[in-house]
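The instructor's notes for this session suggest beginning with a concrete chain rather than abstract definitions. Hand out the sequence below and ask the class to guess, before any prediction is shown, which regions might be ordered.
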Amino acid sequence: MIHTQKSKARLFFTYLKDKTELFLFVKPHGTSGSGMTYRRAPGDAAMNLRIQAILDHAKVQTVDTEIWILLYPPEIYTTTMYISSHASSNEVKAMIREQIFSTLPYSINYDWENYTLTSHENGHGENMVTVTILGKDVLPRIQELLTDNFDRVKFIGDGLQFLNIEATFFQQLRGQTYEMILPYDEMFYTAAFRSGLHVESSVLTHACSSSFGEYKLSQQQVYLDIRQEKNLLHQPKIQPVVPCSEWMSARLTSAAFPTWFIARNCMHQHERVNFIKQDCESEERSEKKRSSTKLEPIYLLD
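After discussion, reveal the predicted structure:
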């Protein structure tokens, strides 16, 4: 399920300022199933030693491993605007500053020279433009932590985009707007999707409470939130999506659940917003998928 042919393993590196997580997924080979190793550690000078220890334990060579950097709010920010399809690049830049920059709390902490735009036709002469912005200090800090290992980084982006579950619940979610809720320590991350396209990421401190109205959420689960749908009868508006047997069979510590779910989901999703240029094989696959779905992104800005 690892798409880069040269890689035998994928190391997911979750960066959350005061702590980091390492999750190693080793590609199945022969009669051996996939292998998974999880570690949580402070972000300090010993990071590369920890990485090497995980690879040695899994009997994987450094050269056979690719690294994916998963970022969550506030280290990365994703939101969507609706803009005239005839807007010029300069007009789009101006709208970003007017609608996002001026209203985003602590906007000075984001790198306004390093962001990506994807656009999909929304009909009636309007485009749905999704903006993903990196925290200003994220890239320098990750490079400082990984040093020589940074050369093997294949992905840097919003990890919440991989909460997309439309393929699993295609009949129920086709063409719908829905949200996903991911409990993570004392916070709750939410990601919004429209017709399977990631349009927003956010974090709720939620007063450290696991209660969402009449629902109480478990830490080791991810939830589909369809409370905005008004015509649904006789079904929960917040629904768990991971069968307990699948998570139990992973045999990982409870803290690993968010990274385990996102890592597993990303194996099946080819279209993704990535601050690292994709390899040719992934680009070709993404192009085929975009052609088949007729949702071709228009990159308005470099």
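Then share the key points. The helical segments are 47-57, 89-101, 138-146, 170-173, 244-250, 257-266, 280-293. The chain has a mean pLDDT of 84.
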